[in-house]
Design a protein that fits this description.
Keywords: Membrane, Transmembrane, Transmembrane helix. This protein is an all-alpha fold. It is built from two helices and no strands.
Length: 70
């Protein structure tokens, strides 16, 4: 059975949150670019949904780490 170091787990959670944050920022930039260019509303709402899911993912990851005592 492998033992995991708490600092390794914190680092893993941090990298997951960083990745989700990066994706969320990309969705925001895409939404702004599409809104400026006058794209179809479906595309803009897709970006809004991606941004909302990214924000939820950040919150979920942080809460999960806090609950597990990391």
């Amino acid at each position: 059975m492998s033992s995991t170091n708490p600092s390794e787990i914190k680092s893993e959670i941090s990298s997951v949150v960083t990745l989700i944050t990066f994706g969320t920022v990309v969705w925001v930039i895409a939404a702004i670019a599409l809104a400026i260019s006058g794209a179809d509303s479906k595309l803009i709402w897709t970006c809004v949904a991606g941004t909302a899911l990214g924000a939820w993912g950040i919150r979920y990851s942080k809460r999960r780490a806090a609950r597990s005592g990391i």
